[in-house]
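Hi there. Long-time user, first ticket. I'm pasting a complex I've been working with (about 331 residues overall). I'd like to know whether the download I got is complete or cut off, because the file seemed smaller than I expected. Thanks.
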Amino acid sequence: MKKRFNSVNDSTMKALLWKGGLGFKSAFPVPEPSPGWALIKVSRAGICGTDLEIMKGYKSFKGVPGHEFTGKVVSAPEHEEWIGRRVAGEINIGCGRCAWCLGGKENHCPDRRVIGIAGLDGCMAEYCTLPVGNLIEIPDDISDDAAVFLEPLAAACRILDQIPLEGREKIIVLGDGCLGILSSWVLSTVVKDVHLLGRHGWKLEKARWRGMKTSLASQWSGEPVDIVVEATGSPDGIADALRLCRPLGTVMLKTTVSSQIGPSLTQAVVKEITIVGSRCGKMGKAINLINTFPDIPIELLVTAVYRLEQASEAFSLASGGPSLKVLFKIP
Ligand SMILES: [Zn+2]
Ligand SMILES: [Zn+2]
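Hi, the file is complete. Here it is re-exported in full:
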């Protein structure tokens, strides 16, 4: 007899379900981990801009949303050494057979699934599943709240893999949401002149760390810079990024939107700007960054904590209200 996990009711769970409308389910089936996978009891789940885009049609996803989480492994067939460990998880699951997967680039597998985004139920539920190979153990000195940021912090760390930096560059990060702030923090660990431009004085205030400069975008009048990281979450951000970038500079795109309307790219041609798309990074790098800079003020970014039953309040604050990161505390 295979022992399953401890729970009041081991066949159903509380979960949010997106099916063109968002609903709270009090008795959704608990997922069953296949061999090589783990069942994780979720303790925190974060709402991210991608979740809000999914609700506008991004990726045509239907199912349990959510890809930013902290949890504990409660079952792991064939990998029992993981049971009881506190974990976060890499979100992409490649097919394991194609050239991308075999080359270690499963993030770009054409048949990949992404937890809570494409082909696999996410973490806005009491339990979620991921392959054991996607899990990363969270060190004791990183809190549950902070660990939810490992996924977006890894995405911010990805910038450092993609652009070689000398430290003397002038960089603008556009967008004072979580990803913009985390990106500017990551960059300010290697570059002196990082300027975060946003639209909200209170968010910019929370973002100040390591002598990084912040300004309201509407008041910015500086010279075009070497590198612009676009993290506004808005389709208009690219045009602003191209305007703020110097000729022969680099614009890095972090925004994914459901909207199909694109900006004019004429400025990219005229100024011969290199455009670099940037998505997910490795969580091990995010943990290293926190270990190296333990004063990184991640928990300041938590605006509110809700229960799953309060999903509509949580999502309305995350999408329209004054907020940075809105978390679910589960149960
Ligand atoms: Zn996200
Ligand atoms: Zn593959």
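A couple of notes from our side: The chain is about 25% helix and 30% strand. The chain has a mean pLDDT of 93.
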